[in-house]
Design brief:
Blueprint lengths: L1 E5 L7 H5 L3 E7 L8 H10 L9 E6 L5 H20 L12 H21 L5
Antiparallel strand pairs: 1-2, 2-3
GO molecular function: peptidyl-tRNA hydrolase activity; ribosome binding; translation release factor activity
Protein name: Ribosome-associated protein
InterPro entries: Pep_chain_release_fac_I
Length: about 120
Amino acid sequence: MQFKAVRSSGAGGQNVNKVSSKVVLSFDLKISTAFSEEEKELLLAKLENKLTKEQVLILSCDEDRSQLRNKEIVIKRFLLIVEGALKVEKPRKATKIPRSVIEKRLKEKRNQSDIKQSRQKPKF
């Protein structure tokens, strides 16, 4: 992980012009030794829209006037994103629709049909 402090934009008066409080986190997935190859492939697949062409994840935070607080926030964001991307979801098991549900639906259709039939003018 690489951190870079830059000048934040927006309101803040003279503090914005003097202090570099915005923190930008860069994480290069290719050269990272923290993850195995399988984990890297999983991260690439799940985070493909958040990564640059060079497979670098860039996060920034300028919520607080404190550089240290912004660094803490951006680290928490990074951990949440990586943790979410590494979760392997269980495959969904298709279930059969119960017979009672099908019969109930057909009975309701028959009742509705009978109601509409009774509204028609009688045929002589």
